[in-house]
Amino acid sequence: MNNFEVVIGIENHVELKTTTKMFSPGPVSYGATPNTKVNIMDLGYPGVMPTVNKKGVELALIACHALHLEIDPIVQFDRKNYYYPDLSKGFQITQQYYPIGKRGHLTIIDEDNTPVVVKIERLHIEEDTAKQLHYEDKTLLDYNRAGIGLIEIVTEPVLRTSYQVRKYLEQLREILLYANISDAKMNEGSLRCDVNISLRPFGSKQYGNKVELKNLNSLANVEKAIEYEINRQSQILLTGGTVEQETRRFDEKTKSTVLMRKKTDATDYKYFSEPNIFPIKLAPEWINDVIKQIPELPAAKRVRYQKDFQLKETEIEVILQDYNLMRFFELTASQTTNYAMLANYLIGDIQGYLNQNGLTWGQITLQPEQLAEMLNLISDNTISTKHVKTILPILLKENVSPKSLVDKLGLKQITDPAEIATIIEPIIVANGEMLSQYDDRPERVIKFFMGELMKLTKGQVAPEIGQKVVEELIVKNQKK
User: Fold this and answer.
1) What angle in degrees, to the nearest 10, is found between the helix axes of 417-430 and 463-478?
2) How many CB atoms lie within 10 A of CB 302?
3) What 8-state DSSP symbol labels residue 256?
4) What positions does the domain Asn/Gln amidotransferase occupy (predicted)?
């Protein structure tokens, strides 16, 4: 590996978050019974005419803007002609010659903490094919997916390590999620990744033969596949062999890449302009209106979370890694100012509960307003953090009000200084010997009397108020 420079380019197919397909009114539904969401347009029945999904174009524009791509205001489509079982009509509607976006970039942070600009060559709109289900003796086809709107995002071959690839994919996925472009679930196929990888001697300007890695369904597998392929290709080159241009897949069981097919000549898809969709000119005002709808993206959230919520960098990263966790945090933060404690409970106790019970943030019983109410009860000294151990497990399982729980369980703290003084002053007066040590050992004396106060009240005194009262009474009784 040290003898060669690694050259990597990424192609991502992203399913757009639309309710209908890209060129037909067919419904989009993941996990439906196979072949129950099929439309005659997507199957290419004679005489059918495609229509362009406006929402799909909007989402493509948002993706272009978020990835700093130059937008082409003329939307034009082409036919990619080939026959394969998952493409029954014999062609795919795509944008070969005039992609809606080109020449963009995404900046990532490398392992040595330096920025790396990943150049994006193009982004184009197209339709998905059917899903193939392979068995030992047969292949079944589910045409529910046929016609679903996609954007394909293609980088230039500027990535050099598996770490850089992972960081690029993590950041790309964040943008797709936070801009509501796609669900971006690799395990469900709404975000697919093909990696093109080759090796060349350091200093060489000529690229080596390219191997395409397909069917990578997780970030971890992307890294493993790249590392394996780097080692495989370097061993071939070091022993005087030639890396063949081919397509390979990653086998999770063997943790290796496996040959799918060899590539000899480039396939001639005989592209030509889609005759049933005339070019569409997008008004600049409409493009601007679409772009204005973009929600706050992760980069802006990172800045705001540090500035407004004073969160640690590690806390911010954990929160932003899960879109539903982020939504829960923000909805709760809009109803409380106890941000540090909010982040602590979300990342700690609540996330731990979800992990133990195999739940996601979308399945949780606890609601943001309940958590905010509990945190506000801590802030105003109605309860202490000690009481959270009793309240939170109940809130995670039952839809109840934290205030009602406090009243029901008798957890309300004593916060009246006069009431606290009445309880503890006799103890202070009766312990003259301990009181006399205050000047030399103030912390020990305060700790002793606070302990006595908590025993008498069964821990129901608000600690900060209780300590202030104890200190005042110690000083007062010293003077007597």
Assistant:
1) 50
2) 16
3) E
4) 327-474
CB 368 within 8 A of CB 335: yes
Per-residue pLDDT tens digits of the chain, which is 480 residues long: 468 999 999 999 999 999 999 999 999 988 899 999 999 998 889 999 999 999 999 999 999 999 999 999 999 999 999 988 899 899 999 999 999 999 999 999 999 999 999 999 999 999 999 998 888 899 999 999 999 999 999 999 999 999 999 999 999 999 999 999 999 999 899 999 999 999 999 988 899 999 999 978 899 999 999 999 999 999 999 999 999 999 999 998 999 999 988 876 667 899 999 999 999 999 999 999 999 999 999 999 999 999 999 999 999 999 999 999 999 999 999 999 999 999 999 999 999 999 999 999 988 899 999 999 999 999 988 888 888 999 999 999 999 999 999 888 888 877 778 878 888 888 888 887 787 888 888 888 888 888 888 888 777 787 778 888 888 888 778 765
Indicate the Cα dihedral angle 318, 324, 330, 332, nearest 10°.
-100
Structure token digits, residue 399: 């839809």
> How far apart are alpha carbons 83 and 30 in whole angstroms?
25
Burial of residue 325 (number of CB atoms within 10 Å: 0-12, 13-18, 19+): buried
The whole-angstrom distance between residue 402's C-alpha and the CA centroid of its chain comes to: 30
User: CB of 161 within 8 A of CB of 7?
Assistant: no
Structure tokens at 250: 């990653």
Q: How do 91-94 and 78-81 pair as beta strands?
A: antiparallel
- This prediction's pTM: 0.85
